Amino acid sequence: MRLNFILFLCILKKIFSFNIDISSPTYKVGPSNSHFGFSVAEHFNGNNFIFLIGAPKANSSQPGTISAGAIYSCPLNSYFRYKSSINDKWCSQAYVEYQNKERYKLPPRTKDDRGITIDSKGSDFQLLGASVSSSGKINGRAIVCAPLKRYHEGVSYTDGSCYVLGTDLSLTSIIHNCNGGRLSKQERHNSYGACMQGFSSSIDEEVILTGTIGTKAWTGGIHATFVDKSDDVFAINIDRTTLGFEEREGGIRENKLFEKGDYVGYSVKHGRFGFWYEDKKNFTIVSGSTRHNQSGSVVFFPFMSIQDQSYEEMLPTNDGFMLKGNQIGSGFGYSVEIVDLNNDGFDDLIVGAPYEFFIDIKGNEFHGAVYVYFSSGKFQSRDQNELVFKKPIILRGKEKYSQFGISITKLGNLNRDEYGYNDFAVGAPFGDNGAGVIYIYFGSKDEKTFNTKPAQIIPASKLGISPRQSPLKSCGFSLSGGSDIDNNGYPDLLLGCVLSDTVVALRSKPIINIITDHSMVNTSLNIDGGVNCPRGSRTCFDFTTILSMNPSYSKEKLVDYTKDVFICHLETLSFQSGVDKRVKIYGSRDGYSLNWECGKNLNKQSQRKIHKLYISKDNTDWLNPLKLKFSVSIKDQTKTSLPDEGEPLINLNNYPILNKYNSTHEVLISFNKRCGDDDKCESDLELGATFLDISQNKKGKFVTRVGEKDSINIKFVVKNKGERAYESRMYLQYNHDELDVPQLDSTKKLSSVNLESYENNITIFSLGNPIEPGKVITFHVIFKLVKSEGQRTSNILSFKAILNSTSIEKNDKDNFWEEELEIIKEAELELSGVSTPQMNYFGTTSDSLPESELKYEEDIGPMVKHQYTVTNKGPFYVRDVFVEFDWPFRIDHEDGENNYALYVLETPTIIEADKSIRHCLVEDAYDYINPQKLIIDPSLKVENNIKQKGRNKREVEEGKIFNIPDIKISTKNFLGSKGLEPIEATDSNGSPIMIVDVHCKNNYVMCFKIKCHFNYIESESSAQIEFRARLWNRTFIDHYTNVEYVQISSSGRIIIKPEQGVVDDQSNNFFTISTHAYPDRPKLQTQEVPILPIILAIIVGLLILGVIILICWKCGFFKRKRAGDGPLLHKAELQYEREMWHEMR
């Protein structure tokens, strides 16, 4: 049959209050600096509760003593101030050291009432009240100790002493085992000269325990007394001790089980845990030994009550079983407490390690620890003591240096749960910035269900306090609990705030034990269904809330059930982070929450209320369950307040609270997913894909040629060969540097497929919710090429797609598709250029200034521009393009001069297609760009000329091309460089001429490189690179006047990274620009000519000249003004540049 199910659970949340009231505590403030509250105990004087408080540094009021310590008995009332006009109602001092109270009015004697010798100063600083304990029962007894009490006149042996008190705090007996002849003090503290009996103590109606941590050089020890009441007539005291037996066979120091300084007896308790020997008369004593093995331990001593003197010695277990601390200096065993946490009849053990330090894997620090050892719940055999306890649960303090675990106390069944689980409290006296914090933990069925989160956290700074009180400090240094001090049926808690000399009583509020629940007609929801559903919903259902009383507490009348005393609240929650609420409540204002009054006659019958819940049509999540919370609170609940001094205490029965666990009910409701009898959807998705209109090469790879505006179309096919696939999605990964966000082909109408989201290189497509069994979905995804901005540009595009759904996938091997596509990006880059002007002239030696007199750029020679053009003829754009140039900088001559060739005046300029201007990169530009630091004409800068509209006169002049006649030069008298030899060339008429070719492939020409970078060069666009330089006149005048011309060339080449995959014909990626420099005067012929032809030529010439002059005279020619002889071409050009330069200045 179909398994439809509903899950519900109650979630425990960390809160800071439960039923211990913190608004109206009861205070007792003791004498200043007395350490009032160093130890506390809940005690009953008959039926009347009193605070039993130790103040070990107080003055005892006995004459002749100094800071002997005091015990205070305080009633439960609102009088809190010490030494007030109402001091008798505050507290009274308990005179516990003498049976005759009048003895306190006299100085200490050398012998006490029993005739035992006492040091005359033995009560000074004895720390009376350092240890206080009570059975906590009506008519119970108590014990108080002074661990530094000294006997023996003139010898300061700190024997220690404990005083057993009756219910009225009268002295019934004194325990001081170290003050006896059997225990030698010959070796002082190495024997029994510093027992410090009473450093710790414990008492109930059966057992009295005292710790003696100073015996045998602070090895420590324990003394125990058991009161056997099995005889109805007589009660027999049975004593057991480690004192005097430490080094005998089996003793605590035999075989080095314990050594000097181990502090056995630092804390003492007793219980019955499941050791083989335990029964009603035989039990186990537990003692903390905080320095054992430097990390501390807890040791177990069997107490055998058999009446035999041979059993007087108390030994550890037969195998020396103990629990050991985990960290050096942790103080493991500083405090111990015995609590039956799960009410199984076997005691459980709680151990404090207040100095333990821990760092978790997230780096969080924890200070202090408490170890919770659940008993195994059965008696173990003699050789299986290690099985008595289960693996510990470790609780850790989250505040730095808080000393979490320095005190622990049992609380009884604080919340009065119906299972009888006992609870406990842990003190962290230096948490909350030194004010102190108390943590409350509840018992549980077993260690698996134990909640490590505190049921209540009580920071002392949050306690209600009188304006006349000082701020609290170190609260929780001592704790005592488990007794009901105000008779309301709930145990309460005392805590000592030792550094503020204050004790606080925190009382518990009564608890209303209601039960919240729900019911539904169907145990799961159909996706399509429901009756009378609200408009706009896809499905709806009835949800019934149920409120009832816990039958175990139905007779309690803490509120008036004749009217609605509660507020019921129903709300919808998100199933988890990132999941929408989805379900709405009909009749709710916001759709997600609803309140109503409830609780009338709840003590007689439960209350039910039906709610219409619905889910809208636009919901897509049908797999995650719905989450609802039904909770109840008390209507018009008021808060308690702190009464003024002398006023009656607040009656907490008038301020009940709801059980925080049962007053909240959370439920998870699943959907009927129609996926078989087990309601588990096992889908089997299959993914296939192919490139459209793209073929494969012989190697089986997909290859295509693309342009900038081309796109890539992928056809995807998804099949479901299994059960319903809910929230199906396809995750598509691609090269986002090369491709735009993909889009669905709008011409293919597929309502079930949507582009859901995209981020970086992953796009998510929702495919349907659900994809029905057998359904086939076909859709097309289109990618457009984009200009890449990253460095991962490649000619290989990678595509990865994976299917996923919230259903269970039976076969995920066919849910994946991966393919690569090689794209051929065709681009035609071309480098071209021109020299402006194409020809130039250099003058004679007399025309050139010395280098030391060069100041302006026009002083060095005529200007030359090399203008390169980079063109992309497409069809694809190209990115990350470099154009690298070799520039002829200097010619190597032996004269050592700066024989510059083309002297570059400014950094080469890039002129983009949009007329934006950038500059190329020249390494060590300081050495190559205007190294002589000549003054640059700003009007001639490339940037300024680009911004001008049209060309000015200077540009026209520079652009002139002069027709110079071919001149034959004799090579016999060539005056050029010894290194750079002329070469033979042919002029336009085919006649041989001699030229000098200055280019960077010649070893005598020093060049430097220039790099120009382009991020993008669009298709059908171009950019220019302009070099502005001048001929270095001096170089050419000194070396190249006897040649036809000098050809000076720069060259450039386009560089594209091959990994881009751009296909480019590189034959036109190289270009050279040449400038021809001609001497300004032609060199005269030096060949010998016969004299006679010369004379005849002169005569003929003169005759012809005379005839011409005569004709001109006759025609009046000489009446016109004759212009003077003009300058040489080079001089005229330089003169014109100087005039223009001076006009601008």
Strand content is: 35-45%
Uncertain segments: 1-16, 949-977, 1122-1130
Any idea what the shape is?
elongated
CATH topology-level name of the domain at 829-941 and 980-1079: Immunoglobulin-like
Query: How many strands in all?
Result: 70
CATH superfamily of the domain at 829-941 and 980-1079: ntegrin, alpha v. Chain A, domain 4
Gyration radius (Cα, Å) is: 53 Å
Report on the biggest sheet. Answer: 8 strands, mixed
Helix content: under 10%
The secondary-structure class comes to mainly beta
Per CATH, the architecture of the domain at 829-941 and 980-1079 is: Sandwich
Q: Number of helical segments?
A: 8
Please give the alpha-carbon distance between the first and last residues: 104 Å
The first-level CATH class of the domain at 829-941 and 980-1079 is given as Mainly Beta
Global mean pLDDT: 85
Family: Belongs to the integrin alpha chain family.
Pfam families: FG-GAP, Integrin_A_Ig_1, Integrin_A_Ig_2, Integrin_A_Ig_3
Domain Integrin alpha second immunoglobulin-like: 675-822
Subcellular location: Membrane
Secondary-structure map:
Elements: E1 6-9, E2 26-29, E3 39-45, E4 48-55, E5 70-75, H1 87-90, E6 92-94, E7 131-134, E8 142-146, E9 150-151, E10 157-158, E11 161-165, E12 171-175, E13 197-203, E14 207-212, H2 215-218, E15 222-228, E16 236-241, E17 264-271, E18 283-289, E19 297-303, E20 322-324, E21 335-339, E22 348-359, E23 365-373, E24 393-396, E25 407-412, E26 423-428, E27 437-441, E28 456-459, E29 475-481, E30 493-497, E31 502-506, E32 511-512, E33 514-519, E34 525-526, E35 537-549, E36 566-573, E37 583-585, E38 593-598, E39 607-616, E40 626-634, E41 657-658, E42 664-669, E43 671-672, E44 682-683, E45 685-691, E46 695-696, E47 702-706, E48 711-720, E49 728-733, E50 743-744, E51 754-759, E52 762-768, E53 776-784, E54 796-804, E55 808-809, E56 816-826, E57 829-836, E58 839-842, E59 863-872, E60 878-891, E61 902-904, E62 909-911, E63 917-919, H3 925-928, H4 942-947, H5 953-958, E64 983-986, E65 992-998, E66 1005-1017, E67 1021-1031, H6 1033-1039, E68 1045-1056, E69 1062-1063, E70 1070-1079, H7 1091-1114, H8 1129-1144
Parallel strand pairs: 32-41, 34-43, 44-55, 47-56, 56-69, 58-70, 65-68
Antiparallel strand pairs: 1-42, 2-31, 3-4, 4-5, 5-6, 7-8, 8-11, 9-10, 11-12, 13-14, 14-15, 15-16, 17-18, 18-19, 19-20, 21-22, 22-23, 23-24, 25-26, 26-27, 27-28, 29-30, 30-31, 33-35, 35-39, 36-38, 36-40, 37-39, 40-42, 45-48, 46-47, 48-53, 49-52, 49-54, 50-53, 51-52, 54-56, 57-59, 59-67, 60-66, ...
